[in-house]
Structure formats: C-alpha cells, structure tokens
Design brief:
Number of domains: 1
Strand content: 15-25%
Oligomer: single chain
Strand order of the largest sheet: 7-6-15-13-14-12-10-11
Shape: globular
Radius of gyration: 24 Å
Number of helices: 12
Distance between the termini: 80 Å
Length: about 400
Amino acid sequence: MKRVISCILAALLLTALAACGPASVSEPEQISMVPSEQLSSDPSEDPVIPLPSFSDDDDSPESPEQPADDSSDGETAQSSETEESSRTESKPTVSADSGTTSRPEASKSEESSRSSGEIDWTPHMSNGFLVVGNRGMEKFGGSAVGGGYTADLLNEFQEAVGPSVQVYAMPVPTAVAFYAPDGYEKSSLCIQDCFYGMRDALEGVKFADLYGAILPHKDEEVYARTDHHWFARGAYYAAEELCRVAEVPFATLDTFTEYSREGFIGSVVSAYGVTELKKYPEVFYWYEPNQDYVADYYTQDDKFKFSGSLFSSSGSYTKFIHGDAYCVKIATGVDNGRKLLVIKDSFGNALAPFLISGFEEVHMFDIRNFEKNALKYIENYGITDVAFALSAFTVAGSKRNNIKRLMTIK
C-alpha cells in the first residue's frame, strides 16, 4: 500500500513540474567572504581585516583594523550586512570639473611610462597592496551607510560645541580614489559613496569636498606612489577647499618656497614590504610659507615641549609637524579672530602650512592619541572653527569612535 501511495505522489509531482515548464537556474551571487572572527560586533562597522604591525616612526596606515574591501590586505568584501538598513545610501555627486564618476585616467607621467613599455602595468596584489606599475595603493570597501555613522558623531560634536563654533567634515580620499585601474573601480566608487553618504547625513556641519577638489589635479604630484599618504600638493588643494568653505583668506602656492628631496621611498615599501616598488624612488616635495608664525609643540596631554618649525629634518612624511606625536599650536599673525582646531589622523599633518594664512591661530592634534577633553580644549582656547581631517579608513573604521571619546574624557 505504501509503495502505491509513493508512486501516485511521484506521478503527481512530475505532472506539476511538466506544467511549469523547464526550471531556470540563476547564477549564485558572488560574495567575498571575511572570516567571522574578523568582523566587528559594532553594527556601524564595515568588515575589518588586520594589517601587518608597524612602528610609529613609519607613520603607516592609521590602524591595524581597516574596512575589508579597502583594507591593505586587499581582499574585497561586501559592505557589512549588519549596518543600519534604514539609512538611504546616496550616490556620489559628479564634480563639475570631472563630469563623470568613472575612474580617472592615469597621470601623464604614468601614461608616458605605459606607452614606452618601461613598466609592467598589470594590476596585482603584493603584501596586501594593489600594485599598478610603479604605484602601490590600498583598496577600500566603505559605504554610504558607514559614512553616515561618522556624520552622526560629527553632528553630536556640533551640537555639543553649540552655534558659536562651526564644525567641518573634510574626509580625505586615498590614492585609489584617483588611480584605481580597470577592474578595480569599486574602491574609488566606494570612497565616493562613503564620503557623500557622510555629507548627506550632516546636520549643521559644513562639508569640504576634498575628492572633488583634488580630482581636477590628479595628473599632478598629489599622491605618493610608494607611500600611503598624499603629497604636499594634495594637502594644498584640500586646505584650499576648507578655506573656501570657511570663507577665510588662502595663500596660493606661488607664495611658498618649494623644497625637494630625491630618492624618496615611502611606507608602502618600508612599513609594508612591497619591495618591488623600491626600484621606483620619488621626489619628495614640501612647501614652506613665507609668512611669519610661531609653532609651539605640546604633548598629547597638553604639556609644552618646544617651539620650532612646521617642518622636521625628516626626509619622509614625518617632515610635516614632526609626525603624529604632538599637539601643535600655531600663532599666525593673521588678525581676523578665527581660531581653527584641526582634529586629524596622519593625513592632516601636511595641511598645517597651508592653513596659517586663513586663521589667527591653528591648533592640531591627533584623533587617536590626544588625552584631553576636546570640548574643554575648545572652550579654553576660544576655538571658533573645528575641522575633522580624517582619511577614508578613519571615516569607515573603528578609529572614528575617538570622536565620541574626545567628548567624554574627564
């Protein structure tokens, strides 16, 4: 009897399938996987992958935790599914100068090398870095949702300081935003999504569009090829954008004195061991202002250490304000009552010389290391403007939580 029933059921099933026609099978969705132990428990976090350790002197990427798609480990991953799904993801705004959100073309010098056949331009991964010819870059996988969470923190900061102090968001793109090769455009688009998602979620905080400001100048020496930072010229265009938004004066580059050092090899080689780039040394440029100023350096708990130049004797990125070790207070001689505090990661260091023409005082400290309450600091020094100059990794990663920490330190 059981066998008869089984046969009848099988016949009915075959009849039903035949009536529906041939079954269509879709391709499985391709999702890059990140081990679960590397995922953050914070729902605002993008997936993270640990990076190699590094010395403070190397001035290497901000954190051993980075968003997975853009981490220096180079594994692509989807934006975290645990992020708040109710926030609307916004598309990047097209720069008027660029007219497109597609990947920028290679710089003129790189195109020259490409055509001459001197360099192998086949993209590949090396020690977690995307290497294209003579340039090493970090991939990026942040999102508009992640940028929105950072905006929430900045909104809270703006509310805490009140209307007498203006807060600015100035997220700093990394090199991949401008030089991603064919097949790796996602990293560039993710930076735009993350930054413009932040912009659209800001309330009372003003946005300085550094991506849009630098994009028309991508063929200039704005980013290092062997270091994960920008060059001084990239910081110059970023400072120009901030001063435009803040409506303060800005000294053009022709008023500075240019200096250079040949044979520069940066952190991508020295800290991350992408040794194949060692055969492509660069010229390291910096620009010293012909404006009188006094720069005082303090410890991270705001104790005076020394007075000196905005430039160290280093021939690397620690040239700018002696690296990340100090809180810097600069008296500029400008008499406009505007006092700027830059809360930054290492990318912000190179901004210092370009900001002193616009503000009476410029204060800078590192978001990761400063040990005093930022709100009390602002009150004590009569700060009128606060700019958060944070790289893409800080905007999308756990280091952004220092914004909250700086408001709550006793």
